[in-house]
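Exam prep: given the inputs below (a chain plus zinc ion), describe the expected output before reading on.
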Amino acid sequence: MKVKFWGTRGSIPVPGKDTTTYGGNTTCLEITLESGRKFIIDAGTGIRPLGQHLLAEGGKIDVHLLITHIHWDHVQGFPFFDPVYDPETKIRIDGFPTCMKGLRVPFDNKMGDGFFPLKFDDLKAEMSYLDTLNHGPLKVDDVVIDSIPLQHPQGGFGFRFREGKKTLVFITDNELTEEAWAGRHTEDYAEFCKEADLLIHDAQYTPEELEKRKGWGHSDYVSTLDLALKAQVKKLVLFHHDPTRKDPEVASLKAHCEELAGKSNPDILIGAAKENSELTV
Ligand SMILES: [Zn+2]
Ligand SMILES: [Zn+2]
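Solution:
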């Protein structure tokens, strides 16, 4: 499997000179299976350049789109995903049960038109809702995808991809806390991530920042590292960077994680998600 980061930022896009390394677009990942089949996770603003990239590659676009949850930063790019205006495009949608509503709302909502020039029904792509992950694993080619509920306001799903002996876990917008009401406890997440080759997890805050933001549904990077160590993952990638975090600050959180990890597991690899970077699992 390959994973490419098209959007790494949390909450709101932050283009500009302070985010050129780690990126300013909101959540969007492209996962390419061994078979060549492509999955997109989330439709934050990173899905706009991904759409242009897919069209430039040529050929018919046939992708799965998994939505973790429908907070604005995870769906706001969808109207600008150019393949949706191409009748040749096929999009198989799955993920959190409200995902279709979340993709539709930027076009049409109860307050009427006026938020976007087109209606959802004007889109030309063939879109289908699989409705699988809410009931069990999704099996595509030789890959099994499972979901886990997130500890996040209004809920959400994290996803695990298993292909042969390789495991990739993507969990964003998740608050690691023992007071979990919507999601799971840390030990459940550790079980879900157990010995994963790659864990990409929300690390929006520092422990100090989290003090004033409990219940907002995000983790501090120390708790995220603890989860990765507990689960004995091979590589941890910090994700959903806070919009206020400048490039050197993201780099220093990563460096601090490496320093902390060195005391208990010097073999674990630590990264911070960088827009346009690609990892092979
Ligand atoms: Zn988010
Ligand atoms: Zn969210």
